[in-house]
């Protein structure tokens, strides 16, 4: 049983080049991926790259009080929104009882994150009671022909039979959310479709009067509708404020550059009935970017009920409903039959950023409170740049001292240590550059400190291995067997040491927030890379160098000179046979 084991060991020792080739391939592949992605430098956090600091003040909604629970919930939702857009290192924290501070670093999607951190994202599906153009080109009392944009007619779809969808033959009215136009029509996933366009009635009274006893309320609603000018931002903001789900309201929506105003009935489905929303690109048709929604079981039933009721009023032209986000109409499609699939899509002229922004707000839920921007401050990177310069200078001094120590004490072995440090540095840099677009990792000052601390951790692993090799040489062994016998003992020590470091980094990452997590993440990453480099580079390189005469013969500049290490002379075993003590073994020094 011993012979095969020895053979395998000899085979492993004789082919260290495989490990070196493997790590070389990994470096080339990662570097190629870095250049292919176009991100050749790590993303920087707000302290190094600058960014925007936003102060939000909470306002109590009806039924929602400003308290610690609601503020903590708002912070959590804002955190998930900005991270869902790939803006990592954003800091969201409370200040006092009713303020939230949001720090967003410069980078991809940072503007979208700034726009939606304080967006309440309250979504409702409301029936459309009346609709007409708004602004300078609108007539005081729109007629059906003036606002008609199409006619309802069934149209086949290429989807699987059994489901239904509602869509519009022309782009439906849209709204602007935080200054970003969002246009489109809503349709349910799959099959026979009906194409319809928005409608208009001569006055809101034609459909907005619930009963004769509500004449006063209807007159007020008519006045609001007639006076509403959706081309004015202040009037749009006023129309979107303080709207209760159970009220009949007026609202605004945009189609292209034209604005439209609506009278909308009480909400029938709300955002809490949306189980999941995601932005996807339609590769089968011309819809482009769209937002797919999946309803909860209760939401699917509500949606089926309301579309069934609207479909029954198709002949009367009362089959249109609006998707309303924070008081603004996102789209207003018409339906001709009930939508019972439990899922729907919002499609239209979305850009990728708009679709992702809307899906994030729908997925992560509405804020429990309304927020008003008090201040928006641009943070410069000047102070962080000075601190980074000082940190890099300290790291360079530390690295120089480590190299000096290695050269003086280990001499030729210092080349192995420096080559290993170089490989570790390349892997660390490339992986950090790739993690920026990959998971939103951003390099901040604490992360730089973690990378500097990692220099000592990595050097410590080399020192452990070198000392084990020296111990074997002191016992009288030649270099090649010393390299192989020292490795199992050094390997155990290195793994235990790195495990403790990684465990500390993991605990620190879990229990802390903000910038300290950057330190913990970098420390954990470099600890893992230390194990990779020692196993796949340092050990194979030592095996190859042990075959070179400079190291194998113990040159005084190799760092492995047996005489300078105080090596024992090799032991020689001799046998002597004399009388009854025949067969005994005696040891003599060579």
User: Radius of gyration from the CA trace?
Assistant: 35 Å
| Shape summary | elongated
Helix coverage percent of residues? 40-55%
Q: Give the class from helix and strand content and strand pairing.
A: alpha+beta
Number of DSSP E strands: 21
Question: Main β-sheet: number of strands, strand sense, barrel status?
Answer: 6 strands, antiparallel
Layout of SSEs?
Blueprint: H1 2-14, H2 17-37, H3 46-49, E1 51-59, H4 68-84, E2 91-95, E3 99-105, H5 110-116, E4 123-134, H6 144-147, E5 153-155, E6 165-168, E7 175-177, E8 180-182, E9 185-188, E10 193-196, H7 205-208, H8 215-227, H9 233-240, E11 249-255, E12 258-264, E13 269-270, E14 274-282, E15 288-295, H10 297-312, E16 321-325, E17 328-331, E18 343-350, H11 352-364, E19 370-379, H12 382-410, H13 413-439, H14 445-474, H15 479-511, H16 515-545, H17 549-552, H18 562-565, E20 571-575, E21 585-589
Parallel strand pairs: 6-10
Antiparallel strand pairs: 1-3, 1-19, 2-3, 4-12, 4-13, 4-16, 5-10, 7-8, 9-18, 11-12, 14-15, 15-18, 16-17, 20-21
Helix pairs in contact: 2-13, 2-16, 4-11, 12-13, 12-14, 13-14, 13-16, 14-15, 14-16, 15-16
């Amino acid at each position: 049983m011993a012979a095969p084991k020895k053979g395998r060991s000899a085979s492993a020792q004789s082919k260290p080049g495989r490990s070196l080739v493997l790590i070389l391939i990994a470096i080339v592949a990662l570097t190629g991926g870095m250049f292919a992605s176009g991100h050749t430098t790590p993303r920087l956090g707000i302290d190094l790259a600058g960014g925007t600091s936003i102060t939000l003040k909470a306002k109590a909604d009806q039924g929602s009080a400003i308290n610690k629970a609601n503020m903590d919930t708002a912070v959590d939702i804002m955190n998930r929104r900005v991270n869902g857009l790939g803006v990592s290192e954003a800091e969201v924290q409370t200040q006092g009882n009713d303020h939230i501070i949001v720090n967003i670093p410069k980078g991809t999607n940072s503007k979208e994150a700034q726009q939606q951190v304080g967006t309440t994202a309250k979504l409702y599906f409301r029936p459309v009671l009346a609709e007409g153009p708004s602004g300078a080109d609108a007539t005081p009392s729109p007629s059906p022909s003036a606002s008609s944009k199409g006619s309802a007619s069934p149209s086949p779809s290429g989807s699987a039979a059994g489901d239904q969808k509602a869509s519009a033959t022309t782009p439906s009215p849209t709204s602007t959310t935080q200054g970003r136009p969002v246009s489109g029509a809503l349709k349910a996933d799959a099959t026979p479709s009906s194409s319809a366009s928005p409608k208009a009635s001569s006055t809101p009274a034609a459909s907005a009067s619930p009963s004769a006893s509500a004449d006063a309320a209807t007159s007020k609603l008519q006045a609001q509708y007639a006076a509403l000018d959706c081309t004015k931002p202040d009037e749009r903001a006023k129309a979107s404020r303080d709207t209760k789900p159970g009220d009949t309201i007026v609202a605004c929506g945009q189609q292209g550059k034209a604005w439209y105003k609506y009278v909308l009935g009480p909400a029938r489905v709300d955002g809490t009935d949306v189980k999941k929303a995601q932005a996807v690109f339609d590769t089968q048709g011309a819809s482009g970017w769209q937002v797919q929604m999946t309803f909860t079981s209760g939401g699917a039933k509500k949606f089926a009920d309301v579309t069934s009721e609207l479909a029954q009023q198709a002949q009367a032209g009362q089959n249109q409903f609006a998707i309303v986000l924070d008081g603004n109409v996102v789209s207003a499609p018409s339906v001709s039959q009930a939508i019972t699939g439990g899922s729907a899509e919002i499609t239209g002229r979305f850009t990728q950023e708009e679709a992702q922004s809307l899906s994030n707000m729908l997925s992560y839920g509405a804020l429990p409170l309304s927020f008003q921007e008090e201040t928006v401050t641009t943070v410069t990177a000047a102070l962080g740049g000075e601190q980074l310069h000082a940190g890099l200078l300290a790291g360079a001094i530390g690295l120089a001292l480590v190299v000096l120590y290695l050269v003086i004490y280990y001499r030729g072995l210092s080349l192995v240590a420096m080559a290993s440090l170089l490989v570790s540095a390349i892997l660390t840099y490339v992986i950090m550059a790739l993690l920026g677009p990959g998971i939103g990792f951003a390099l901040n000052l604490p992360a730089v400190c973690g990378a500097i601390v990692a220099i000592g951790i990595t050097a410590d692993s080399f020192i452990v291995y070198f000392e084990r090799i020296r111990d074997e040489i002191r016992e009288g062994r030649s270099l090649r067997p010393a390299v192989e016998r020292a490795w199992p003992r050094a390997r155990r020590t290195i793994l235990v040491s790195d495990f403790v470091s990684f465990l500390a980094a993991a605990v620190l990452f879990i229990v802390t927030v903000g910038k300290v997590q950057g330190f913990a993440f970098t420390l954990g990453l470099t600890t893992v890379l230390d194990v990779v480099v020692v196993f796949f580079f340092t050990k194979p390189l030592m095996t190859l160098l042990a075959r070179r005469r400079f190291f194998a013969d113990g040159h005084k500049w190799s760092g492995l000179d047996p005489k300078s290490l105080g090596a024992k002379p090799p032991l020689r075993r001799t046998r002597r046979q004399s009388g009854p003590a025949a067969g005994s073994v005696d040891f003599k020094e060579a």
